[in-house]
Amino acid sequence: MEENKTLYVGNLAYSADEHDLENAFSGYGSVDDIKLMRDRETGRSRGFAFVTFATGSEASAALDMNGKDIAGRPLRVNLAREKPARPNYNNHQQRRF
Known about the structure:
By secondary structure, the protein is an alpha+beta fold. The chain has a single domain (6-79), classed as RRM (RNA recognition motif) domain (Alpha-Beta Plaits), CATH 3.30.70.330. It contains 2 helices and 6 strands; from the N terminus they run E-H-E-E-H-E-E-E. It has helices at 18-25, 56-62, and strands spanning 6-10, 31-38, 45-53, 69-70, 73-74, 76-79. The strands form 2 sheets. The chain has a 4-stranded antiparallel β-sheet with strand order 2-3-1-6. The chain starts with 5 loop residues before the first strand and ends in an 18-residue tail after the last strand. The model has no long low-confidence stretch (mean pLDDT 89).
């Protein structure tokens, strides 16, 4: 089983950006990727992000950021969970409603 290298970071201030997250989390290890989730129409932050580290041990160490303040809000930091698979209705099977 592959080690989890990605953290869910919630309760972000809408003013927080990728730079703020990079600065906050880079002290725990090599940050490979930051995905700040944004509203499709407005481009405004949705208040959460995913931060991926080079190793699972770095990600585990960064769990220490849970409850720490960034831009005036206490973060919620957890190991990210795999997104559940969505049903595929495009496989030409008849749907019953």
